[in-house]
Amino acid sequence: MMKLNGLAAAAATLGILAGAGLTHHGAAAALHTAHSHRPAATAAADAPATWLESAGGQAQVTFNNDVSVLAGSLEVEAHAPTVANHLVFEADARTVRADAEHILATPALLPAVHRAEYKTMLGDFITVANLLQPGPGYGTTAQDYTAWYAALHASNINVA
């Protein structure tokens, strides 16, 4: 079994920093607040809300939620390393990988600002997801940490 205590903590931090705690309902409330009673002159300040309302922003919300689920599954497995818990985080990693691949394959979902950095971040998450699947490098803690920290660093991107 993989040694995941530190990895799970990094994953949880990543989920928080990436905005993974923002639910669709929370996003809607944030959008309503962002657009309520604002003069037209503040349209530039609403760029993050505009991104969140877009198909790419909604894909990012879904991606962030799935990263958060993966982080939680890694934390559970770190404290209860059963085969069942192990299989759950593998499935969650496949979901994160599929989300990232879908966004990368759909140019309309990519942000107009910092697009290259965003693609790098998604690629880093694909690397993490691959390391959490049986195959080369699976269960190699040093590789896991390196991948998580690369994804964590890459996730601090202003997309609006």
Task: Reconstruct the topology from this structure.
Blueprint: H1 5-17, H2 24-35, H3 47-53, H4 55-79, H5 83-105, H6 115-131, H7 141-154
Helix pairs in contact: 1-4, 1-7, 2-3, 3-4, 4-5, 5-6, 6-7
Would you give an account of this structure?
The chain is an all-alpha fold and 160 residues long. It has one domain (5-21, 47-154). It contains seven helices and no strands. Helix 5 runs antiparallel to helix 6 (115-131) and helix 6 (115-131) packs antiparallel against helix 7 (141-154). The chain is elongated, with a radius of gyration of 17 Å. Residues 1-36 have low confidence and may be disordered.
Question: What can be said about this structure in brief?
Answer:
This protein is mainly α and 160 residues long.
Overall pLDDT confidence: 72
Continuous helix count:
7
In terms of per-residue confidence, which ranges show pLDDT below 50 for 5 or more consecutive residues? 1-36
* Main sheet properties: none
Count of individual beta strands: 0
Radius of gyration, in Å, reads 17 Å
The helix/strand order is HHHHHHH
Helix content: 55-70%
Number of discrete domains: 1
| Overall geometric form | elongated
Helix and strand content put the structural class at mainly alpha
Approximately what portion of the residues adopt beta-strand conformation? under 5%
| Straight-line distance between termini | 40 Å
Which terms would index this structure?
mainly alpha, 69% helix, 160 residues, 0% strand, single chain
